[in-house]
Design goal:
This protein is mainly α. The protein has a domain of about 55 residues. It is built from four helices and two strands. It has a two-stranded antiparallel ribbon.
């Protein structure tokens, strides 16, 4: 039996794609996987591609992925992390094109 506050055995404290939360009163940090949102998005994209099955051109596949991403974005309830920094970088890279798209 593990002591209260001790790390749980298994993958949760050894996964490279996880990050520690703030340590609790015992000094033990709980590791939280950060890939859940990415995996959920990949699952939606894979499902759409599997449902459609065959694409006559690469452009047809890209159109489907674009539509799935737009539909999925409407389901999101929390803003993306670091979005303000990403917007600033996109504005520098793409200039007026990005600013028009954000308006």
């Amino acid at each position: 039996m593990r002591a209260p506050g001790a790390p749980r055995p298994g993958w949760s404290h050894h996964t490279p794609g996880s990050k520690p939360s703030q340590p609790d009163e015992t000094g033990t940090a709980v590791y939280i996987p950060v890939t859940n949102a990415i995996e959920a998005l990949n699952a939606k994209l894979r499902s759409a591609v599997r449902t459609r099955g065959h694409f006559p051109t690469d452009e047809a596949a890209l159109k489907l992925l674009y539509l799935v991403l737009n539909r999925t974005e409407k389901e999101w309830t929390m803003p993306a992390h670091e979005w303000s920094m990403a917007k600033a970088q996109f504005a520098v890279l793409f200039g007026d094109r990005f600013n028009k798209a954000m308006a």
